[in-house]
Amino acid sequence: MSKPTRRQMISTGLSAVAATAFGRIPTLSGVEANSRASESAKNILSENDKLWYHSPADHWEEALPLGNGLIGAMIFGGIPSEQIQLNEATVWAGGPHNYDNPEALTALLEIRKLIFDGKIHEAQDLANHKFMSLPLGQLQYQTVGDLHVKFQGTDHVVSDYRRELSLDTATHLVTYSIGGVTFHRETFVSHPDQVLVIRLSASQPKSLSFSVNFTSPQKSSSGGSGTSLDLKGQGTESNGIAGEVKFLARLTCEVDGGQAHVEANELRVVDAQSATLFLAIATNVRNYKELDLDPEGIVSHRLLAAKQKGFKKLHSDHVADHQKLYRRVKFALEPARSGLSTDARIDAFKGGSDKDLPVLYFNYGRYLLIACSRPGGRAATLQGLWNSSTNPPWGSKYTTNINTEMNYWPAETCGLSECQEPLFDLIHDLSITGHETAKTHYGARGWVLHHNTDQWRGAAPIDGAAWGIWPTGGAWLCTHLWQHYLFTWDKHALEKHYPLMKGAAEFFVDSLVVHPVHGWLVTCPSASPENSHHGGQGLCAGPTMDMQIVRDLFSACIEASKVLGIDSVFRSEVEAKLANLAPMQVGRHGQLQEWLEDWDEYAPEQHHRHVSHLYGLFPSSQISPTKTPKLFEAARKSLELRGDEGTGWSLAWKINLWARLLDGNHALRLVKDALRPVQSRGESYSGGGGVYPNLFDAHPPFQIDGNFGFTSGIAEMLLQSHDSEIRLLPSLPDEWPNGEISGIRARGGSISVHISWKGGTLTHAKAHSNFDQVATFRYGSHVKSVLFKKGEEIEISFAS
Fold first, then answer.
1. Cβ distance 307 to 254 under 8 Å?
2. Residue 426 pLDDT more than 90?
3. Which of 586, 482, 619, 463 is nearest to 527 (CA)?
4. Strand pairing report for 246-256 and 228-234
5. pLDDT of residue 138
6. What is the pTM of this model?
7. Which residues touch 621 (CB under 8 Å, ≥6 apart)?
8. In this predicted model, what pLDDT tens digit does every residue of 742-775 receive, in sequence order?
9. DSSP conformation class of 554
10. Average pLDDT in the 248-260 region?
11. Which residues contact 1 (CB under 8 A, 6 or more apart)?
12. DSSP character at residue 509
């Protein structure tokens, strides 16, 4: 008789968790409201703070993620064998490299002339030969490999299986029973101690025997002695650039009631009742240009410290560190649901039940940002921290014409300012490499970044002229520096960031050119990201998105210089340029034009996934119902014409856009599309998005920006603060009649807001500020000005 399959071995007879009534949200005040939610909301929050399943993962898109900003792990939860796929944020292909093209500057004037003469094909041909990066493509973020734990005695029927990821404790749990013995696995990745820890235990003595080994697609070797096992490897060569990243992953263990030793490239544990595995990973990468760190010394130090601290202290420190960030925001919706597993919840949501699945997805986005972007780590890539390949889709790089920025949209609104520090570090590096690119390609001061970069901070245009020549990536990134100040009023951070903003602005002061027909200042050459016009032509002058981004950058530099009391001469120069930028325009169909000319109907893809020209609506605040009503309606028309369908991240962007259009019901329509189930294998790179069984966003394939964009969109539906006032429940859908959210942030002096609603009507609001200030709140047509004293919590009431 053949052995049963893994899924056949697992009993699914687990009792369902009792349904929880939502109940009425009481009005709380003062310390009581900060310390606890209502008891009914507590139960709902606990269900929406975990992902759990009745069976192990068969595919990577079913595995569950852990991370600390440097070490990433995808846990499969297997029974005969556990698989943990590993990443370390600095393991990339290739090595330090300057991508700039020395022929670019000599071709620039001719490329501009051809564009202004309407000879786009000729301009693109010249740009492809003379203006693009060397090599044409950048390098890839890569996997370290996999850790495999093979268990003895798993041939019998398994019962009571459950695997779970606690978003609240950032801990992965696996439990099951075999032959009367209950097995338990607990895994976490500590940010304070920079180690991955696995605690394995059995309910009876001498019941735990297993072996551990490493595998890797990299050029690598494995071996060890005593109770320690090493994986040594090197990142691959790519695009003709030699692989220079060296990494070391080391596993060591402690056992209770058994024996452990390394033999034949395996760590073997025999007859134990429990065992704790400690894993550290390090590389030789100090930064984008220096590879002189000692991985051996780093992992040895971290493992020694971890073993001395012990499992309980490691875990308690890890949980406290994580919860300090994660527990800042709480969100609940009615109605509650039965205790379905996460994959079943996705199906139930598709069928119209389990209407508060968006709460879990919102929380998951916050969890993922904490897990993949922490101070001391690296900025989140297209896949965050998690990638199982040496050649992932789009290199799992930093795509800066939407995706990298979207990764950080929820950071400020959800109280995770610290998680942006790796992004700010990335911008700092790019201001150096981009300075050389600005000189080499444009003969300009300051710094520039096009639509992609990698660990080696390439700033030149890549892939092809029609997509790659888009010079506003660095400018868009710099808007995050200014938004950080608007949310926090952190003047010290602004002083640190202002030179980066100024450098990005200097580039455009030098590189903007006068349009020969319109007389406006425009970027040229450029493109509207990844879209085309007139039969597939990409290059153009002054696309709408460029002018919106440059307008934001110039405005931010002007205001920052005033706040800091510096740079009045440069401020005047920027003010003069700002006044002459090409404006936003309404086209013949009532739409916001995507290009300087009214070319929208000449775009081959009328339902293109990018909605670049709507940057002015979101994430920017240049378009609003009160200040620019005609542009506001034109943006709505453009979004209607573009349609609701899109890839995963595109759906997420549209949620934010419809929220800014104050249409919560339409935003919810996109929320539902973003949560439609996608299978784990067989997707193409195009088509509509959704979610995989592990709630990773499906482009498809997996891109994490959709997760983060979704979380931002929910925040925008419930609170907006971009239009000189704080709007409460600006885009509340009819299908969310009852709920509450606390800890969500508004611009201006670290304002934290708590909102409750019942029957679709606001029932309670309060806010806290870290500064003395006056803030204006709006609920519908009701407006209230509030005087804050530093540290004081204020009840917000609106006269009827």
1. yes
2. yes
3. 463
4. antiparallel
5. 98
6. 0.94
7. 722, 723
8. 999 999 988 999 999 999 999 999 999 999 999 9
9. H
10. 96
11. none
12. H
Q: Which residue has the tokens 């086209």?
A: 587
Longest CA–CA separation in the chain, Å:
85
Mean pLDDT, the chain, integer: 92
Query: What whole-number percentage of the chain has pLDDT above 70?
Result: 93
In the block, tokens 């009649």 appear at 737
132-135-136 Cα angle (round to 5): 50
Identity (one letter) of the amino acid at 695? L
Q: pLDDT tens digits for 199-242?
A: 999 999 999 999 999 999 999 999 999 999 999 999 999 999 99
User: Residue 129 has which token pair?
Assistant: 């030969």
What letter represents residue 203's amino acid?
S
* ∠ CA 234-295-218, rounded to 5°: 15
d(CA 95, CA 92): 8
Bridge-based pairing state of the strands 773-779 and 726-728: parallel
Residue 795 has pLDDT above 70, yes or no: yes
Backbone phi, psi, residue 54, to 5°: -85, -5
Burial degree of 422 (CB within 10 A; 0-12, 13-18, 19+): buried
The residue ranges of DSSP E strands in 348-498, in sequence order, are 398-399, 452-453
**Residue 461: cis peptide before it, omega within 30 degrees of 0:** no
Q: Which ranges constitute the DSSP H helices of 327-420?
A: 342-350, 357-372, 403-407, 409-413
Tokens of 441: 């390609």
- pLDDT at 335 (0 to 100): 75
Decide if 178 contacts 154 (C-beta within 8 A): yes
pLDDT score recorded for residue 800? 57
Rg of the chain in Å (alpha carbons): 27
**Exposed e or buried b for every residue in 98-125, given b needs 16+ CB within 10 A?**
bbbbeebbebbeebbebbbeebbebbbe
The length of the chain, given as a count of residues: 800
Can the peptide bond before residue 583 be classed as cis, meaning omega within 30 degrees of 0?
no
Burial 219-257 (b: 16+ CB within 10 A, else e): ebebebeebbbbbbbbbbebbebebbbbbbbbbbbbbee
Cβ atoms within 10 Å, residue 59: 13
pLDDT of residue 47: 85
Q: Could you identify the residue written with the tokens 């016009």?
A: 533
Whole-angstrom Cα distance, residue 780 to residue 3? 63
Per-residue model confidence (pLDDT) at position 264: 87
What helix, strand, coil percent values describe the chain, rounded to 5? 35, 25, 40
3-state secondary structure of 141: strand
The H or E element containing residue 673 is helix 664-674
